[in-house]
Amino acid sequence: MVIITPAASPKHHMELVQTMKHLRTAVVSCGTFTRHRLQLDSEPSSAHLTTTFGAIRDRTNRLVGGAFKFHICCSTLEGGGALRSKLVMYSAALSLAIGVVVLYVVRAVRTYYALSQFGGHGSAGWSRLWLLRTQGSGEINKRFTKINNQYGSTARIGPEMLITSDPELFRRMNAVRSSFTRGPWYKALKLHPERDNIISYVDERKHADIRSRMAPGYSGKENHHTEQDVDDQLLKYLELVNSKYVSKPEDGIFRTVDLSRVTSFFTLDVISKVAFGQPFGFLDKDDDPFGYLASLAEMLLAVIVFGVYTEITNLMKIPLIKAALPKSTDKRGLGRVMGFAGDMVQERFGQDAVVRQDVLGAFVNRGLTQGELESETLTQITAGSDSTASALRMTLHFISTSPPIQDRLLAKVRAEIEAGRISRPIIKDFEARQLPYLQACIKEGLRMYPPVTGLMAKMAPEGGAEIEVDGVEKFAPGGTQVGWNSWGMMHDPAVFGADADIFRPERWLLSRNSSDQECDRVNRMNETATLCFGYGRFGCLGRGVATMELNKAVIETLLRFNLQPCSLAKPFNEKIVGFNIHTDMYFVATERKHFTKADFATLNGGNIDAGAIAGAYEA
Ligand code: HEM
After folding, report:
1. Which residues does the record give as heme binding sites (predicted)?
2. Which ipTM was obtained for this model?
3. Which end of the chain is more exposed for a tag (fewer CB within 10 A), N or C?
């Protein structure tokens, strides 16, 4: 349809004439007043059209005063060079669109059949929408485990994506000489807008290079203050709970403590102190001074989408999007943490460079550049704080809600304290490692709630890989990504027993009289639970720091405080999205008194009687 007004007629008149030259039939109308159907020759001359159109216009203007629009509706098209080329263009575009659709369908069918030997959710073979919905559900742990339980230890969760809960396959993919490599999934772990980091490098050589230069720093060999740093922050955390959150019913003081917050504050201050010699100050302020935890919750949507459509991470290169990403000049959130880390890194360079024997110092000694350090310290903070906080709060939750376990643990540790084998005010790391029941409780806490639930997907080599699924050999073509179902692996009854979903540290204990079979069972559990920290060339570099924090903080918290969840029906809110987000984990903390038999006798002034509530059978 062409619209022209009579007022603008000289130019539009000519356009109209040009247009009509390619028409056989045209309807010329002016509102509802006039409507002319023109029957034209196959190639009407300009003179003929000018006269015809001029006559129609004059007549219409006479009728309606000349201020109306003309609508020219082309009903039958034919002939004309320009029109013909337009037609050719349209049909080319249509053919292209059809071609693209056909290619897409062929590719989708090929992709589907490439992994059709593996079971999985029906739609997962065709699109990534099922995976996106699962990621967004906040319970990937349960959904992935359901898939592995239903369709086998390695099953399909996306068009070119499998998931495994098989420890054997996980070890094989992560082993030092494995032909599997990191999959594109890892690109989603790029935190810094410009730089990759040890966790996000997909290029194997770059990853191996940075890992070899960072490992000595993490090993603690060049940082002699790590244990003291952990102790200092632990004492601050215990003092914070004691001074602000302990309830004292005898004085009429009733309070609650959000364990999810204080444990995060503790691990964030530990990791910043260990990493660059200065804690962020979460514990001092009893607050999130950078808005860091809140910003993690805000980034949740991005984490979910990037985890499925990793190619979107390329959008970060677009200047407009880059400008909206966290940057070191931000006042709050991840950007503020980047700024803090950047300042700490800056100190180590230049003429008056600060020299310290800490993790950062070790990295500088290994030749990491200022840019690399800014990116790596940020990674260290995110990788090392939330994971350890999750392990700590969940272990405390399970022990404090299982009275026989808590009593047994406290009795064992108190006996060691009384025998002078445990340092005060904070247990030493090596002492904690000697306490089997404490170790059993920590392993059980990690197993029940593995802190890393992300896919950490590795990719099959070019020629593909044979994968055994519950005794049946299957083939995954090259490029297939195989994600990790850590929850399913840690809750596997075949490894951990029929009660794998229950917190029972006793499953780890061996005695001198244990049979070989028992020893094998516990060995197998140990080999599997240790995978919580990854394995081989991708294994966690901060494992030493994390276990030190847990060895100390679990028992020192329980020795001082009696913890009781405010709600047993819903002790906390959680979202499991690759890492574990727990909020509103309210507990009543009271000072733990160590009662002796004599104390019980004099308790409450010797009065230990309580009148019973009137019962239904009473008169
Ligand atoms: C309970 C606490 C922790 C758990 C369960 C844990 C678990 C893991 C896992 C599963 C991986 C990745 C494996 C993979 O890519 O396949 C990893 C990597 C890593 N973790 Fe941890 N982690 C914890 C604490 C820490 C701490 C405290 C730090 C820092 C001090 C840290 C630093 C790292 C680093 C740097 C890597 C990357 C290693 C590499 O790519 O070569 N982690 N961790």
Report:
1. 540
2. 0.99
3. C
